[in-house]
Amino acid sequence: MSEYTTGELAKIAEVSVRTLQYYDRKELLKPSQVLDNGKRIYDDNDLQRLKMILLLKALGISLKAIAEILESPNSVTILNLLLEQRQKELKATIKDSKSKLKTVEDLQRNLPQISQIQIETIDDIEKIMDNKKKLRKVHLMMILYGIPLDILEWGSLFWGVFKGVWWPFIVAIVIAIIVASALTYFYYKNNAYICPNCNSQIKPSFKEIIFAKHNLKTRKLTCLVCGKKDYCVEVYDDRNFSKQA
Description:
Number of domains: 2
Low-confidence stretches: 119-125, 240-245
Order of helices and strands: EHHEEHHHHHEEHEE
Distance between the termini: 81 Å
Radius of gyration: 35 Å
Strand content: 5-15%
Number of helices: 8
């Protein structure tokens, strides 16, 4: 069995000599031998005990509790339970960190799109992110209803071309007009726009929105508050989303 002086043990365990001396005074880690000249000698068992002390200390356990655990006949069982608990805590921390990371990434993706919107507090950012989620749901709803409509139209058209029966296509067109009108109104009712000039949330007329120049995120509209015409940022129509001018 190997033997170590206080300095050698401290070096192996990567702790200070003062730490070992403190553990000695607290009777937490006593040397296996004390020579006549007062020199303290530790063995491999002492080294393993020190590693256990440092592990438990890293788990946030007090030195008094560590001493009681090490003296318990069920020390291994207790240690296993402590490690399981620490594992759960770390997993929860990782999950929380991943959630925060996703929030940061979402904010980074959307920041260029919301740069025209005045942000005064962290609550404003949270409202913006929540608003973006609601807006995506509106777009998703449009897609989910639009795809079956396209399938119905094209299917009935091919049926008419190859079978020479055109009444299904006529019925499909009527249905398409009705559903498209309903979807367009649904889109209008759930969307609003933020003016980049005065930061007001506006709701222009149905006609202006439908015929305005637009891209995926904005429409060129005349602000109902400041009167300026510009590309306004599309948002979900939640009147609590931003402050009115």
